[in-house]
C-alpha cells in the first residue's frame, strides 16, 4: 500500500498532474480505511508520503463533495468531543468505481513511463 | 492532549459564518476540520494561542479562504438535486404512471388538432406562458412559508435552499416560449403536421411533469430527503 502511494507521488508530487488523481487517491484511501473524515485524509496522505505531498484543504473538500454528489460516497455524522464529525465511506457504486479508476491510473503511469523512459532497443 | 472547549467550538462556528459559510452542512465540517488542525498544532506548539492556531489553520485554505469550498459544494448540491428530480421524474415513465402520461400527451395532441391551423402556434406558446404564470403564482404564494422553512431551527441547508427555490426551474422553462417566439421558427415549423403536434404535446407534458415534481412531489418529501442527505439533520 505504502509503496503504491510513494510510486504515484513520485510521479506526480507537486505537479498539476496529481490534481486529476485526487479523486482516485481519496477513493483508494477510503477503500483501505473504511471510513474517514476530511482532516484525517489530509493527515494520512501526508504521513504516507512522508510530507512529500500535501493535499490542500481547498482541493480536498470540493473533491469529497463532488464524489458524494455523484453517489460514490456516503456520509455518516458522529458527535465527537462537543462537535459534529462527518465521516465519508464508499458506497457500492463507489467500490466499483475505485477498482476502475485504479486500473486507469496504473495504465496511465505505465504509459507515462514508456514515454519518459522509452525502450529503444530493437529486440 | 489539549482539547477545544465548547466556547472555542462556538467561536469557530461564528468564525466560519463570518467567512461567508452560511450553510450548516458545510459549517459543521469546516469547524471540525479547523478544530482538528488547532488541536494538532497544540500538540507540537502548546504555547500557541487559540487565535494564532486558528489563523494558521485558516491560511491553509489559501487566499480565497472558504470561497472555493463553498462554490464547489453549491455545485455538488445542485447536481445532487438534479439527481433527485431525475429519480422522481423517471417514475412517471413506469407503469402505472406512464398510462397517465400517455393519456395527457393524447389529450393535448387531440386538442391541438381541433384548434384552427392559424392559432396553433400561438396556443402552444400560450400554454407555456400559462405554466410559467402558474409556477410564478406558486412561488409568490409560498414565498413566506418557504423563507421561514429555510431558516427553521436557525440553520440553513444547501439542499433545502434548492428544494424551496424549486431548482430555479422557472428560468429553464422560460426559455421555451421565448425560443418559440423567434420568427424563423415560427415560419418554418409546419403546424399542419401531426408529428409536430405530437412532439409539442410531448414537450408540454414533460414540462408539466417536471413542474409537478419540483413544486409538489419534492417539497412534500423534503424532510425525508434532507434526513437521508444530512444524517445530522435528524440529530437536531
Descriptive account of the structure:
The complex is a heterodimer of chains A (123) and B (236). Chain A has 123 residues and is an alpha+beta fold. Chain A has a single domain (2-111), classed as Orthogonal Bundle (Arc Repressor Mutant, subunit A). Helix content of chain A is 63%, strand content 15%. Chain A contains 5 helices and 3 strands. Chain A has helices at 2-12, 17-33, 38-48, 57-69, 92-116; strands at 35-37, 73-80, 83-90. A 3-stranded antiparallel beta sheet of chain A has the order 1-3-2. In chain A, strand 2 and strand 3 (83-90) form a beta hairpin. In chain A, helix 2 packs across helix 4 (57-69) and helix 2 packs across helix 5. By secondary structure, chain B is an all-alpha fold. Chain B folds into 2 domains: 6-65; 69-233, no CATH class. Chain B has 11 helices and no strands. The chains are: A alpha+beta (123), B mainly alpha (236).
List its salient traits.
heterodimer, A: 123 residues, alpha+beta, Arc Repressor Mutant, subunit A, 63% helix, 15% strand, elongated, B: 236 residues, mainly alpha, 11 helices, 0% strand, WH-like_DNA-bd_sf (chain A), Tscrpt_reg_PadR_N (chain A), WH_DNA-bd_sf (chain A), DNA-binding (chain A)
Element-level helix/strand string of chain A: HHEHHEEH
* Gyration radius of chain A, rounded: 16 Å
Largest sheet of chain A, in brief, is: 3 strands, antiparallel
- Any idea what the CATH architecture of chain A is? Orthogonal Bundle
Number-wise, the strands of chain B total 0
CATH class of chain A: Mainly Alpha
Q: What's the N-to-C terminus distance of chain B?
A: 29 Å
* End-to-end C-alpha gap of chain A: 34 Å
Largest interface, C-beta closer than 8 angstroms, per-chain residues: A-B, 27 and 34 residues
| Unreliable residue runs of chain B | none
Low-confidence stretches of chain A: none
- Morphology call of chain B: elongated
The share of residues in helices of chain A is 55-70%
Strand content of chain A: 15-25%
Query: What count of domains describes the coordinates of chain A?
Result: 1
Amino acid at each position: 500500500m505504502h509503496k503504491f502511494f510513494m510510486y504515484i507521488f513520485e510521479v506526480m508530487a507537486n505537479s498539476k498532474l496529481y490534481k486529476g488523481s485526487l479523486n482516485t487517491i481519496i477513493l483508494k484511501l477510503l477503500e483501505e480505511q473504511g471510513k474517514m473524515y476530511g482532516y484525517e485524509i489530509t493527515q494520512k496522505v501526508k504521513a504516507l508520503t512522508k510530507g512529500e505531498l500535501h493535499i490542500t484543504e481547498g482541493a480536498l473538500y470540493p473533491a469529497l463533495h463532488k464524489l458524494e454528489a455523484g453517489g460514490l460516497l456516503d456520509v455518516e455524522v458522529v458527535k465527537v468531543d462537543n462537535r459534529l464529525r462527518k465521516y465519508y465511506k464508499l458506497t457500492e457504486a463507489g467500490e466499483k468505481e475505485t477498482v476502475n479508476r485504479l486500473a486507469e491510473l496504473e495504465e496511465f503511469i505505465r504509459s507515462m513511463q514508456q514515454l519518459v523512459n522509452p525502450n529503444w532497443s530493437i529486440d | 492532549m489539549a482539547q477545544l472547549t465548547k466556547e472555542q467550538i462556538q467561536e469557530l462556528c461564528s468564525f466560519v459564518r463570518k467567512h461567508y459559510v452560511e450553510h450548516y452542512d458545510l459549517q459543521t465540517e469546516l469547524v471540525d476540520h479547523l478544530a482538528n488542525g488547532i488541536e494538532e498544532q497544540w500538540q507540537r506548539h502548546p504555547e500557541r494561542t487559540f487565535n494564532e492556531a486558528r489563523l494558521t489553520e485558516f491560511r491553509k485554505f489559501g487566499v480565497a479562504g472558504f470561497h472555493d469550498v463553498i462554490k464547489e459544494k453549491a455545485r455538488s448540491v445542485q447536481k445532487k438535486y438534479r439527481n433527485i428530480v431525475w429519480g422522481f421524474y423517471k417514475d412517471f415513465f413506469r407503469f402505472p404512471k406512464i398510462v397517465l402520461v400517455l393519456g395527457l400527451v393524447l389529450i393535448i395532441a387531440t386538442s391541438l388538432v381541433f384548434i384552427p391551423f392559424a392559432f396553433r402556434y400561438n396556443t402552444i406558446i400560450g400554454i407555456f406562458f400559462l405554466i410559467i404564470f402558474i409556477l410564478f403564482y406558486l412561488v409568490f404564494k409560498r414565498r413566506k412559508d418557504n423563507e421561514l422553512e429555510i431558516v427553521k431551527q436557525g440553520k440553513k441547508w444547501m439542499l433545502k435552499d434548492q428544494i424551496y427555490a424549486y431548482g430555479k426551474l422557472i428560468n429553464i422553462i422560460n426559455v421555451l416560449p421565448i425560443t418559440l417566439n423567434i420568427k424563423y421558427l415560427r415560419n418554418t415549423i409546419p403546424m399542419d403536421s401531426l408529428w409536430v403536434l405530437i412532439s409539442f404535446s410531448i414537450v408540454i407534458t414533460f414540462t408539466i411533469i417536471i413542474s409537478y415534481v419540483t413544486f409538489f412531489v419534492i417539497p412534500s418529501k423534503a424532510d425525508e430527503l434532507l434526513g437521508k442527505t444530512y444524517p445530522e439533520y435528524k440529530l437536531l
